[in-house]
Each structure stands twice: as C-alpha cells, then as structure tokens.
Amino acid sequence: MGKSKMRKSIAGVLVAMMMMVPFAGCAKNAENVPENTTTKETSEQKETPNTDTSKEEGIQVGIVLPTKDEPRWIQDQTRFSSILDEAGFTYQILFSQGSSATEKSNVETLISKGIKVLIICPQDTSAVGAAVQLAKDSGVTVIGYDRLITGTDALDYNVGFNSESVGVAQGQYLIDNAVGTGNPLYLYAGALSDENAFVFFKGAWSVLQPKIADGTFVIKNSNEAIKVQDTLDLTREQMAAILGQVTTDWDFNVAKSKAEAHLTSAAAKDKGNVSILAPNDGTARSIADVFASDKDVTNYVITGQDAEKASIQYVIDGKQSMTVLKDTRTLTDAAVAMSKQILNNEEVVVNSEYDNGAKKVPMNQLPVLTVTKDTVKEYIFDSGYYEASEFTGLK
Predict the structure, then answer these.
(1) Cα 84 from chain centroid?
(2) CA 348, 354, 360, 362: dihedral to nearest 10 degrees?
(3) Farthest-apart Cα atoms in the chain, separation
(4) Angle (CA) 187 193 196, round 5°
C-alpha cells in the first residue's frame, strides 16, 4: 500500500483526478449489479452463466452502496461505472438495501472475487465496522465513501465532502432568508445510524443557535432542542436526543408522516412564515409538500442536499428553496483516483483527516456549493451536472 501524505489544498486532489489514466493489464469489467445478490452479465459473459469462478477472479475494485432506492445512489453507480470503464478497472458494484447483514454479505462476496480495494458507503456508519474489519483482515485496502465510518481502526482512507459545511450552508440560508424575529423553526435530521446526520446537524446548529438565542427563530417541533437552545456546543447525547425526535431515517415516508404530525399538533400561530431545516432532497420534497398543503402556512423556506433532479425542478418551481450540491462527479473521481494510487503502490493523496473514535483517518475532503434559483444555471447547467433541457420553467 502507498504512503499517506497530508495535503493542504483540494487542488492536489483535482490534479490527481485529472491525471488518471487507464490501468494497465485490465480485462473485462464485472458490470453494475442492479440486484444486491446477482451479477449483471457483460457482453463478454452473456453466453456463460456467472458461476464460473475463473471469470470472477481479478476484480480489483469492489463498491458497496447503501441502497438503489434513492436517486442519489443510482447517480453514483452510473458515474462509477463510467469512469471505471474508462480507466480500465475490473470492478463490481453491490447495494446493501438498508441492511447491515446484506452489507456484510456483499463485502464477503467481493472479497471472494479477489478485490484489492473496497469502496464502501455504509448504511449504518458504526455497524459497518465488522465488514470493514473483515476486508482489512483479508488484505483489502478500505476506502470509506461519503459517509463517515466510525469506531474502527480497520478503515484506511475516506473520500467525502466537508459534511459540517453542508449543515452550515443549510443553516445560513435559513438565517439569510429570515425576516424579523419569532420565525417558527422546524428541525429535521437524517438517520441516527448515520454519523453524517450528526455532523450535518452540528454544522446547522453552529449557525442557527445564536439566532435561536436572540429570538430570530423559535423552535416548534422538538422539546429536546428547546431544552438546549442556549447551548452552542452540544454533547453527543444532547444531539442524539434531538435527532431522536426529528429523525427522518432518510426516508420520504417517515419525513412526510413526521411533518404531518408536527403540523397537526401545532397551533396556527406556530405556522405562518416558517423556516424548515430539512437534511436532504428526498425528505425536503416530502416535507415541503406537507407544509405547502397546510392552509395556516403562508410561506416556507426549506433546505435540501444532493441536488437530485426532482429537487432541482422543485427549486426552479419555488417549491424547495435551496439544495447543497455535493458534486458526485468529483467524489467518484477522487475515489477512483485513490484506488489507482493504491493499486499502483503510489503515494495516496489526501488533504485532511477525521477522528472516527478509533483512529485519525486520512481523508480527501471536497467542497460543497449552495444551489438556489439564482445559482442553478451556473452550478448545475453551465457545469454540465444536468442538461437544462431536462427541466421546465426555466427563464
């Protein structure tokens, strides 16, 4: 394995990605896996069932993603396939479908196929430790992808975005669009099983709390948050108590039900012009639809994350106020560039680190952008992230 070296600028990461060249000696690719237990055959494998172990040898990179039921992860799958095909890597992509048991089984499957590098985005950032340890014990270099894996010293590297800055961007947007004082504030968060949910919330709280303390915002849907509204630096236990009340589990239906319950129990005076901290795009759309249908809500400002196509349309239509763009093109590029460095026994380029509770993990940390009606053209269409022709209502 190559040595880690801390770098101070993201420029080094981008240079490394741009210099990525096809990996010599690679043969055919193991295609994407649309089901979590089967392998889609490539054109070179169509006449032979995928039971011949000789055809499974030599897979260099294994990728495990949390679920295929969310647009975000299908987008990542598509990008991984494109750049890995172009780079000439052999690879396989599996989905855990929200199950730690399936996740561990996926890792075992990939190890049996001889992978040298595992890129894994866990569905549970602490429970994944056993699977990561299994890969490490098998001589596989493990790269955590996007979500911050905690509690294991078997993790070698991480590629991700500055998760705290996502929350900061969301919270700051609510602040910038608040008028006067007494603005009703509804808080929502990701899954308690996802370390990033805590980091996102920490970032948002860091900017929102002073504005809660001075009366700009009034929390309406979490008595646990109200208990600590005068505290800037929350303990883990305090955050967990809040998230336990406002978690969406990253699930559209959970988010919808929770928003409905909150508005049903809220008095008309607790509605009006509301500010909503929603953790990601899927939950934002569900929550926005609920608030939009309430006759006592005269206006709402709501955050999001991931720049999903459906939410870009919502932003254009004025149904969602903003989304935080974590350009997964740079994320997947960085993960593949790191994999190439590992496979070639080259120096592994990183620019940061994070403490996962068991070790300080070397990390490539990438920047985020705030997408609104005013910036959607520049950040989404001009950059080629999506084509403008895919959306309606553009001026």
Answers:
(1) 20
(2) 0
(3) 69
(4) 65
What's the pLDDT score for residue 395? 79
Nearest in space to 201 (alpha carbons), one of 237, 149, 164: 164
Distance linking the first and last C-alpha atoms of the chain = 51
CATH classification code of 4-161+328-365: 3.40.50.2300
- Whether the pTM exceeds 0.85: the reply is no
| Strand spans (E) along 60-106 | 61-65, 91-95
What is the model's pLDDT at position 58?
A: 72
Amino acid occupying residue 140: V
Structure tokens at 345: 């026994």
User: What's the pLDDT score for residue 328?
Assistant: 84
Among 380, 356, 301, 368, smallest CA distance to 151 is for: 356
pLDDT, residue 57, reads: 54
C-alpha 70/C-alpha 74 separation (Å) is 7
Three-class DSSP category at 217: strand
Q: Which residues of the chain have pLDDT under 70?
A: 1-57
List, in sequence order, every residue forming a beta bridge with 305; answer none if it has no partner.
324
Is CATH 3.40.50.2300 correct for 178-320? yes
Tell me how many degrees the CA angle 374-371-189 measures, rounded to the nearest 5.
Answer: 135
Q: Do 4-161+328-365 and 178-320 agree at the fold level?
A: yes
Query: Is 239 in contact with 202 (CB distance < 8 Å)?
Result: yes
Element (H, E) at 255: helix 252-265
Report CA torsion sign: 145, 122, 80, 142. positive
pLDDT in tens, 94-109: 999 989 999 999 999 9
For 51, how many CA atoms within 13 A lie in the half-sphere containing its CB?
3
Domain boundaries, the chain: 4-161+328-365, 178-320
CA atoms of 172 and 199, how far apart (whole Å): 15
Q: Which two tokens stand for residue 118?
A: 């595992």
Residue 297 · residue 271 · CB < 8 Å = yes
Beta bridge partner(s), residue 277 = 187
